[in-house]
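quick one before i forget lol
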Amino acid sequence: MRFEQSVEIDARQQRVWDVLTDLESWPRRIETVELVELLTPAPMAVGSRVRLRQPRLGEGTWEVTVWEPPAFFEFHQTTGGISTVAGHRVEVLGEARSRLSLTLDMRGLLVPIFGRIYRDLTNRYLTTEAQSLKRAAEAP
């Protein structure tokens, strides 16, 4: 099951990337994130691990599987028979405009059940996260 949310941002790609990849600031910037703890020392790279806690979703450990600055990163977690991949892409739209696209792919035998249960919440969280990162990237 795949979820996706995109938003256009009045900021350069590098600015959006810097805001997006400042993971430890997510709890201050995004109301759907309660905790981010880097389990691997900075800088972020493939293999880095992050503990992330979100309301109503609990806590999980995510591992970075793709790290391509300043355009894309992806991390992965497997828990309870469900494998989840979260993608974060920043595209250049113009001189000082970008598009942020957030994706969440869920795979596994239990996805048809849990995907339906969490569909609305997941869509709401992705929308909130995209809009929160947009506000942060457009702020002076």
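fyi The two ends are 37 Å apart (CA to CA).
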